[in-house]
Design brief:
The protein is an all-beta fold. It has one helix and 15 strands.
């Protein structure tokens, strides 16, 4: 049987993507050196670009129908780029900020958000059902419900003639820290086969929506300890020790999204296929003159 060529087209009525955004924030001073802010963010994306096969087969290969019964018998798949997608993002952002005073400064920020769309984030994203985009409406690939960040530093102030022994020892030291936590991202469960015969292996199990499975959360603590030495007014040296993911937490990534074709998932479904970096420590010297 003669194979028909696959082609890619651009929708003649394609539109430029754009977004509509609302941002509202209130900030209040709590004490002399600290403040609290609360904000709301709404972001709507319109006319997002996606790829849709407008010449999908009507019958499987086993039916022995010419060109699998496609609407246009002269071609195979006709992938058309069009601006049919849209997205919604809503977030509550809370931040506490303590400005530098005495030994320390501190900032804590928390984001509660939800992102919904009907197109994946990768460029060649295509729907499961090429004639029902609504069926792919679900959580966005980057929907992260919770995100917490705590950062700051501890720095010993300059000593004076009356400084005690402890302050003389710690003078010049600075400890900086960043702790990050992010809840799990969603992922799309797939059967691993072409269930609807459209030649695209992006079919989900019956009854499962897009991005209805969750992967793994993320947490990491990074530290930086430094000590400054001053030899003269112009010559100085800073010794630095830095640690990344110092708690050596296993932050798994990229779950296996093959559910299988049965009613129950495969044993490997949802298992991690990659992980972020383990603990890393590095040392350095910085000379200033």
């Amino acid at each position: 049987m003669l194979t028909k060529p696959n082609v890619t087209r651009i929708d003649p009525e394609i539109k430029n993507s754009y977004s509509e955004q609302i941002n509202f924030q209130v900030e209040r001073e709590l004490f002399r050196d600290s403040s609290l802010s609360v904000g709301y963010i709404h972001l709507r994306g319109l006319h997002l670009i996606l790829s849709r096969n407008v010449n999908v087969p009507r019958f499987p290969a086993s039916a022995n129908v010419p060109n699998l019964g496609r609407p246009d018998p002269n071609f195979g798949n006709i992938s058309r780029f069009e601006s049919s997608g849209d997205s919604y993002y809503n977030a509550l952002v809370v931040a506490f900020n303590k400005r530098a005073s005495n030994w320390t400064n501190l900032r804590i920020s928390y984001t509660l958000s939800k992102a919904i769309d009907d197109a994946g984030n990768f460029f060649f994203s295509s729907p499961q059902d090429n004639f029902n985009l609504r069926d792919d409406r679900g959580l966005s690939d980057n929907d992260q419900r919770h995100r917490l960040t705590l950062s700051g530093s501890l720095e010993a102030p300059r000593i004076t003639d009356r400084a005690n022994a402890f302050r003389r020892v710690v003078e010049g030291f600075q400890l900086s820290y960043i702790f990050s936590y992010a809840s799990a991202l969603p992922f799309n469960p797939l059967t691993g086969n072409d269930r609807n015969f459209d030649t695209n292996f992006n079919d989900r199990p019956v009854g499962r929506g897009r991005n209805t499975a969750r992967g793994f959360d993320f947490a990491s603590l990074d530290l930086r300890l430094s000590r400054k030495f001053r030899f003269s007014e112009r010559l100085g040296l800073e010794a630095i020790a830095e640690g990344f993911n110092v708690l050596n937490r296993a932050n798994f990534q990229v779950p296996n999204n093959t559910f299988g074709t049965g009613q129950t998932p495969l044993a490997s479904f949802g298992r991690p296929t990659a992980a972020s970096d383990s603990r890393q420590i590095q040392f350095g010297l910085r000379l200033s003159f």
